[in-house]
Amino acid sequence: MGFYAVSNIDIVRAIVIQGYLGYLASMKRSLMKKKKIGLALGGGGAKGLCHIAFLKALDEMGLKPSVIAGTSIGAIIGAFYAAGVSGAQIEEILRKVRVAQINKMVDFSGPLASAFLKGKGIERFFHKHIPVRHFKDLKIPLKVVATDFWRRREVVFESGELIPAIRASMSIPGLFKPVKVGDTVLVDGGAVNPLPYDILCAECDILVAIDVSGAKAPRREDHIPSFMESIMSTFQIMQRSIVEHKMRISLPDIYIKPELRNIRVLEFYRYAEIIRGVQNDVERFRHEVTTRMRKRFLFF
Prior knowledge:
- It is built from ten helices and eight strands.
- With 300 residues, it is an alpha/beta fold.
- Helix 2 packs antiparallel against helix 4 (87-95).
């Protein structure tokens, strides 16, 4: 049997190496805490369900944004996540939704009302499943974008009651009744800022924007849209114009725009198809976040 004599120099060298590795690990944790990721979740109706796939990717990577901004469906998904509900848990909540529950959320207004739906049913759904009532109790700071209808300007909620802010942000004109907060009448935030990454610029080191506006193509030979398609798609065309104008001024560090072709605003039943359609985008998202983190932190 052979013996290996360990010298004092070997012991010292091992201690130094171990200490250095511990120092590097400590430095990494410190830098990770100091550097902030800002996450902007855009509006897009049912297409916005794909936000869940990107949140699950962040969870799997062990990363959390330091601040979130959301418009419309982005505000809804962002609120769940900021309240401490993981991407996988949000997905599970959606999977458990049954037809009877959906019927309860669909509360039609009268023929002369300001919109088809009152929106009280969806509010009850939020109250049941979002475990937080006020912005101050969120685990991640959240900014919710809505539109002041009469003053024609952006309103950003980041304090006060959470559910009314979300409900205002998703009030698609003609579909959901506007929300009144004080003397302010609020409608969908997509009318002024459908992808609100610009309101996070000063609060993060790495700015991520997920654009779920999707793509459209004619489904019939005559190319003439239906009544509802005309209204919804025209609204989305204007939203796209707003985003393109913003991006000529400043760009997010990471911009992801899944194609999601011909998914209509209210086609939430196509969830599985929507998630399948963004898998390549999720992988690109993982790669770009990892690359950015390496550039920022030197090691990851």
